[in-house]
## 1
Amino acid sequence: MEATRIPTRYGAELPEWVLEELADVPECLPTVEHRMRLVHRLAGRNYHEGTGGPFAAIVVEEESGAVVSAGVNLVLASGLSAAHAEVVALSLAQTRCGAWDLGGPGQPVHELVVNWRPCVQCYGAVLWSGVRRLVIAGEGEELERLTGFDEGPLGEDWAEQLEARGITVQRNVLRDDAVRIFGRYGDSVSQGGVTVYNARGAYTARHAAT
Amino acid sequence: MEATRIPTRYGAELPEWVLEELADVPECLPTVEHRMRLVHRLAGRNYHEGTGGPFAAIVVEEESGAVVSAGVNLVLASGLSAAHAEVVALSLAQTRCGAWDLGGPGQPVHELVVNWRPCVQCYGAVLWSGVRRLVIAGEGEELERLTGFDEGPLGEDWAEQLEARGITVQRNVLRDDAVRIFGRYGDSVSQGGVTVYNARGAYTARHAAT
């Protein structure tokens, strides 16, 4: 096999506008509401910028609120289907900390803050990342119904499975704001302005008849 | 927030030894057994090289058998907990094809060949990647029992959920060889030679008393 034909590296990079958006954000965000407000700002801008879907996530040090990394969904910008907001934020945090285990020896308690319950891929990414807390704006059918994205199958006991691995879950932090952003995103999709990049469109297919 | 403190890019790169290993591999691998044999070679070498766990995956064009990309678990080499073999192979294939959807218009049928049923994160990554076929050496408790890795919770209907999204599953391709590699890896772990990087060690914790 000709070695030159085989791709050897992949990656993703935050777009310039995320750094602009972060410029006026304090180094530390004291409460989960402060943290989620930043997530919502990034999620609401991401699809307007054409970088990906209406999703964002940040990793913070739970106690101090120091922002370690910020991610948005970069599927469209990076060309990588795995570059969901959670994977971006977790990977950037691990790059910064020089550790594949954000919960390893000497690490502070790291918290992932995200604007909905993660899809099945990102659920797994949370499990293996070393974060000890997951904070979500909400869960439920609104995301799939309003945006057309498929979240994949997750068991009823998804939160218990996280807890069993030492990851606590906090829900319903500024939930209404999350739903509002998904609704506006759905309107943009209907008007033909944005790409629902989810490859197989399974949610649409499964619910077309209902 | 000081923009210079925020990390802005992440990524992973195949180690040199993978390219060496691929040098004598034909451009096309005609059968699933040929494909799995390559996967087993890469998986068996990966942990000896210290790049990650005993896992590998390749993306091929199903009909011609043309190898599009090859991945190994790069958690240790990249410092990214998400850099499992499947994510590496899929991301490299998408980089090469310039497409976040390997099943999009104009694409051939892409197949992911991997040496066990994917963990919950990589299961989701398969769902969103656009591959139309998943070929696995095996599934079952051997992986967790022999290696100590946690695979996370997947529903009983995991294969049906893939099929519902247009992804067919083929199982039991050179299964015994996969189990043999996991066994050898487990022996190396017992002898203290390698790192089980799975962050929370949940499998060990959950089964310690059994």
Note: Chain A has a mean pLDDT of 92.
## 2
Amino acid sequence: MDFNEHTATEAVQNSFSETPDVRLQELLNTLTRHLHAFVREARPSVQEWEQAIEFLTAVGQTCTDTRQEFVLLSDVLGVSMLVETLNEQEGGTESTVLGPFHMVESPPRALGDTIDLVGEAEPCVVSGRVLSTDGTPLPHAEVDVWQCNEKGFYDVQQPGSQPSGNGRGLFRADAEGRFRFRTIVPSHYPIPTDGPVGRLLKATRRHPYRPAHIHFIVQAPGYMPLTTHIFVAGSPYLDSDAVFAVKQGLIVDFAESDDEEAAARNGVQAPFRHAEFDLVLSAERAA
Amino acid sequence: MDFNEHTATEAVQNSFSETPDVRLQELLNTLTRHLHAFVREARPSVQEWEQAIEFLTAVGQTCTDTRQEFVLLSDVLGVSMLVETLNEQEGGTESTVLGPFHMVESPPRALGDTIDLVGEAEPCVVSGRVLSTDGTPLPHAEVDVWQCNEKGFYDVQQPGSQPSGNGRGLFRADAEGRFRFRTIVPSHYPIPTDGPVGRLLKATRRHPYRPAHIHFIVQAPGYMPLTTHIFVAGSPYLDSDAVFAVKQGLIVDFAESDDEEAAARNGVQAPFRHAEFDLVLSAERAA
């Protein structure tokens, strides 16, 4: 029978019937059904479909070693957050999107080190513990951190003016699961608007801003890895993050402190800001 | 309320609420609903979603001035054909996909000219009429033609060994709507398999072949443009086209002929092949 509106989905699904990888076949069959349902409902003209193809091509071609425009597209359509949410660890710290800026490996640093290689903004101490859901500290947990600077730019966005590795650090918690590092308070910032995703936001009158945050990937043997942010309380755009990543439980107070003794203990000068919170991992499920 | 599995779609749709272009807003809202439904049902792991992003990025980065891998992806998922089918002209010749090889303008040629600039394979005459659905000839209709050679390659795939414009021609029908050109019988061929779409076909054990065909775009003032192929009767893969484009009504006999007089009249030597068919356009609908 000819390929038509009614036979299309089955014809394409049949073409995948010899796929050796059962999960791949399931994903492709489900994708085909939903993609065709979208096309049947939206009824794009041939020209509209050509525009969609051109848009997706431009998204791919905007990607470089230090820029991932398809992650950005997935982010602004809420898909990255949806995938994170569906994979969330039960009982642990809430997860949120990886984002497009974890493109380089964070340099290993010692506890207490600073990730601010420039030193021009107000110092900030970030500290806390890595715990299991029952409150047990997780000794020597790995804490991978990355953030933008006080102007809202990641190091990879300003290779000329920021040192490589600025705002990034790979830490190992101590024997009591404690982590501590120095930094500066990150700024809210716009996601890159000079590519096709920026054009999409402009065409839909959406602002491109993300509230201020620090990224974390936390890992410990026997526990599920956690990808999350902490958000700076009081930052603009907490209620309209361009990538839908804010969860109320991830907003942390970056408190101003004049405590000279605490400043000295943390290797900074008062006044300084201090964010203190725990990162909670769920145990791996038995296979 | 936090972004979660249940609030995700509404949150993203709300972000599009200020879109000035009503059609764009409708397309994005429909896309968001179907895309999120796919993710909710398929429940991709974070790693699977990363693989999907990497795949789409590679598809975009495989595109060049002479190669459109996203069209190819749309083709092998049956989406291009579905879009064509939903936009089909009623009563006219059936349409089928544009395909990824209409990337250069066809050189204007006179009726009867050959589009085979090499001259090494058996000659073929293609002729017919451009008609309206009531059988009225459409004088001076534009007939844009492109095809691969007898080995299955388009000119743009072999810039070193095929002359530019080989297998392509832009013709204007005569005052009675008749068109006629010389060529060679195209071969069935594999779609390009050295990119990410090829890897998808391999992973799903799908063959990459398309049955032999000649592409047409036909236009006449006051009529809907027609994008179609004619398929060579008897070609392999007529029942399993990698891009789902075959319709029974588009299969044409490329008859062998020994008729010396007909050969001379058409500017070829016997024996030759001859395909004769009409291309029927529907009138534009009133606005």
Note: The first strand of chain A starts at residue 123 and ends at 132.
## 3
Amino acid sequence: MLASDEGGVTAESEWVAVDWGTSNLRVWGIGRGGHVLFSRTSAQGMATLAPDAYPRVLADILAPDVAPAGKPLDALICGMAGARQGWMEAPYLDAPADLATLAAAAVTAPVPGGRLRARILPGVCQRGDGAEDVMRGEETQLLGLSTLVPHFSGIVCMPGTHCKWVVLSGRRVERFATVMTGELFDVLRAHSVLRHACTGAGQGPDHALGFKSGLAAGGDAPQRLPAMLFKVRAGALLSARTPDWCAGYLSGLLIGAEIGAQREWFGRGDLAVVGSAGLVELYGAAMAREGKQPLIVDGHAASLAGLLAARQEARG
Amino acid sequence: MLASDEGGVTAESEWVAVDWGTSNLRVWGIGRGGHVLFSRTSAQGMATLAPDAYPRVLADILAPDVAPAGKPLDALICGMAGARQGWMEAPYLDAPADLATLAAAAVTAPVPGGRLRARILPGVCQRGDGAEDVMRGEETQLLGLSTLVPHFSGIVCMPGTHCKWVVLSGRRVERFATVMTGELFDVLRAHSVLRHACTGAGQGPDHALGFKSGLAAGGDAPQRLPAMLFKVRAGALLSARTPDWCAGYLSGLLIGAEIGAQREWFGRGDLAVVGSAGLVELYGAAMAREGKQPLIVDGHAASLAGLLAARQEARG
């Protein structure tokens, strides 16, 4: 819903919160007192954009909200727009990192015309031989989580293409690791020999059975993941496993192996899963198998809360 | 070299041995006493062929050796030509499988014209919920190994796109497992975010350093493979790792994790690695790190020895 639909008033947003990821762009118009006036999404994520396209895309999606004169509209941006191959590089904060300093480290990205003022929040990196890791966007969700759940102290699992596991104490990111579960699923299903078996729609009772079976196999012996992947193909050839079962098994195997390998991370206080509805359900099932009952937080809600908190930090 | 180049005599082969894999076709002309008269290769592997193309491709590559009249030329074939999506399905033998029975289970594939008689050897499968596995071509190499190394009893590691680990006692395949190391390397390097980092040529001192580092990381904690893959990307971003280093690290990480996860297989008598020159060198280095000194056998030599042994079985 656009604010302009309600009473013909344009440009009533005080500022806009922007989550600009690899695949999607999401903006929220924020009014007085931090109220969300509207949200809009677009498929114009980083992966589809050349660096010089960002100002136009942002101006287009915010066109109804930009006043022709007066104070420019502030846009506070998190995510891959700040990557080297994005709009403008926002240098990483080093972990351990205090997320209260995110806003202070933001960079200003130029928008021609002077009606928009865009600031991009940094990501967080971890240095050291063999410990190297990076995140962009998740740091803002973590700041959001620390606002939504004050005094959170423990492990945050953030499933996605590149799943992040984070040790978070309040607003401090102690350390983190990226697990490529989502991307492994995508490339194996699209490009490997398993594509012949995994043509299922990703739902239904056979999918659920396959997922459960894969979860057990991966969770019980995560080190054997590369040796169990081929069971998807062999199961289709020899045991007449259906495409739905195979897709479910592959998904369960990968998530099970991820959770199984990260067992050492558990038992450090709180446990949260932050992500999209579909993924948090799958990871919740995997963690229940470990006897864990994580706090579930919607990924978009965490991003928004983080951008709100960063805006507050920026303004003191 | 064609036999016909030496003295103008055509069709002196008694029969031809054929290894017809996914990517390549390789034929050997066999003369009296099992001597190899010639070998030829072509890129017309199963992946490039429709079922009805096989007879023509085989007739073409063997044209100089097929006599216009008299006894038809026998071709004994192993590999993916016998898969369901190949020329003609040669049903699997079930493991535990006696490889002395391979020839008896071969199927006859039709070749129009009657100047060629083609027989395709079966693969071996392993049934049972969660134990499902298949091989095609490797069973013939295993029969070859049992001929080249009489009384071999132990573990055979057969690196490739789909690496096979086999418990072999003489000519008996006890059990086996497929590890998708080669295909994981291929799809990650071609289709994942790691493609940005792994543009190296796969050689040089940086490649060797990366391989060694990856081998240690994967071998020490194979269960953490999905969490270590991203280090390739993060190492390039944060520690200025070169494309050669990254490609070497990815290769070492995958092979190290494979060997590390298969540790339970070691210590069962003999140990052999059967494969191409490049791969057996990498796997040999990985096994040396485990204190193992495997017997190294060239993959083509094993295929040829297996086809010779199967021909002998077929003729009693």
Note: Chain A is about 35% helix and 25% strand.
## 4
Amino acid sequence: MADINRNYLDLQGSYLFSAIAKKVREYSETHDSRRIIRLGIGDVTLPLCHAVTEALHKAVDEMGNAATFRGYAPDLGYDFLRNAIAENDFKARGCDISADEIFVSDGAKSDSGNIQEIFGPDNIVAVCDPVYPVYVDSNIMAGRHGKYNDATGTFSRFVYLPCDAGNGFCPDLPKEKADIIYLCYPNNPTGAAITKAELKKWVDYANSTGAVIIYDAAYEAYITEEGIPHTIYEIEGARECAIELHSFSKNAGFTGLRLGYTVVPKDLKRGGTELRSLWARRHGTKYNGAPYIVQRAGEAVYSPEGKRQVAEQVAFYLNNAKYIRGNLEAAGFTVYGGVNSPYIWLKTPGNLSSWEFFDELLSKAQIVGTPGSGFGAHGEGYFRLTAFGKYEDAVEAVSRIKETAF
Amino acid sequence: MADINRNYLDLQGSYLFSAIAKKVREYSETHDSRRIIRLGIGDVTLPLCHAVTEALHKAVDEMGNAATFRGYAPDLGYDFLRNAIAENDFKARGCDISADEIFVSDGAKSDSGNIQEIFGPDNIVAVCDPVYPVYVDSNIMAGRHGKYNDATGTFSRFVYLPCDAGNGFCPDLPKEKADIIYLCYPNNPTGAAITKAELKKWVDYANSTGAVIIYDAAYEAYITEEGIPHTIYEIEGARECAIELHSFSKNAGFTGLRLGYTVVPKDLKRGGTELRSLWARRHGTKYNGAPYIVQRAGEAVYSPEGKRQVAEQVAFYLNNAKYIRGNLEAAGFTVYGGVNSPYIWLKTPGNLSSWEFFDELLSKAQIVGTPGSGFGAHGEGYFRLTAFGKYEDAVEAVSRIKETAF
């Protein structure tokens, strides 16, 4: 008799964004309201830029021609893309990362879910609280969670690193043992950035304890301030302790095109084994490379034209963020994020719980956001809005919120 | 201190096709030989058909236009594709599979590697021998393998189902307990097909023991004979015991475009849980959908024009297979497969081992094939050639083999 993976039964509720989508669908089906403005899920709305669609068309033509057709891609990514990444995202920033330390994939979500596989079952996992749910759920599926505590909404074997206004949403070093530490900066969901000095503490901690940091840099394109690291490899010692995840979704709008990459430096070893060789083996066994046409689209993001067009898109979303943040602040809300991030993180008004505010915002203002508690116990009393919508929607949403009594 | 997943250290050698690529690269770099003909890896060579490139261009234009841009795809696949699959691959064959039992992905390799995750660690895994290495390696990574036996090249916790000329490359039912059974028909690597009567035995066995069959139907488009099932759901009772994997790689040449799907019927439950809900949760947590443009390309495969063009490609490869099989047989080789399959499976001549024949074929005839022993102990003494090359290459390869003394 086949037995299921019983860890799945310990997963709490369904995946956050599926739960939100269901609530919104039910509301729409039962209410004849004005248009719903979606500032919930972190999905982009601007179309792919011209440099990218041009590269896609060209690559499709190649795939339709016998002389230029390409079958299986190299498991780890085409050299043309790995070289462009190494040059632009690392060498240009003075970081020592080479092309053969870069693994191209179908996106940072897949990589952030799969990366835990190369670690043993007994590692203690530390996550920020609130946190992007994939880090937690993928480790529950792998059985690293322990027992669920209903009262606190936490699992006994995870180390939770509280992030709140008190510490500027950058957690203190753990007091408990932690072997694998997930950090995401600029942060999803809080929109907070981390300074080089603060990140250095984590690298030093990991190098002193042997912990490995999984650093999610999916939002680095939104950094506007000086002194904020774009990659953890700007920090001395990171090559010995950190894996970094990157996305093309938020900088270049590839949410529906799927492309990302993960960096595993050669200097990162545990138990005498290069983690890079384990990740390479996983890629080679369970993955067959990102589509050629999508890798060409990724390459185009690094062309002079692509860089300019992509920067315009990021600036557009950052302007939305500034508008939402500034106006909600002026209206009396307590607001974080939105400066080095497309996410605005606000205190719910009137001591409403996160889901109560979600329901009120949907029913009174027809706006969809994301309840902070969906990201962890310490997200309770907070709420995430994204700047990925249209400018008119940001204006309309702010106007609706201002005229609503919560 | 982070600890690695020590199961990875039990993986044998590197992934077969990486090992072959390395040998060929080394040979090319040290020999100034005539052109190498590659009949090794199962990669297609014909360009994407017109219906597919047309759909890709159209979808790229949609992605470049604000009014038609699409962000995150539904995790489980777009309805337009799931409906086309349900209609054409199942309903048209009288099989009761609905769109919401179909999960679109980036390919059958990923799915065949990932599917084991929804099962517990203690299940006993049965695989054919020889076998597609991903089934084995992904279960080693998950720790279901036990101890390696150097003398036999087998792991203590796997059940190996010998497939050889004696049983027509269709294994006997296992005598030992087996909880998860991987079957692939038409078979990779042997090119053998399974009859409905033979497959019915496996479905009945699984339903009587509670085992689950992972049925890999990646090569079903190559079936030319009557009475050979295109899907396991042609067999009564399969909805209660079987998961099926499909690929767009071999029928439509999507090896470099990446698209596949997995069927998990609602009637498939173990321990009171629908396996479908577990796979949906895995998809939702660790995957973010196949690219919109690629899903549109997949839809085009089911259009009248797409069906015709894709059938022409399959017929072209089958003609290569027929040529290679017929001529090698005439030249005195013992040859299997190549009738319902793009793979030709031959006995190595003169009692050469599989890797000895690989080396001889490369050094004497400059042809690359795949050593049977790379697929398992019972593949020793066999060798796989694929029909995915150019027709001229099939002719040239046969001519070279005929004039070579092994």
Note: Chain B touches chain A through 85 residues (CB under 8 Å).
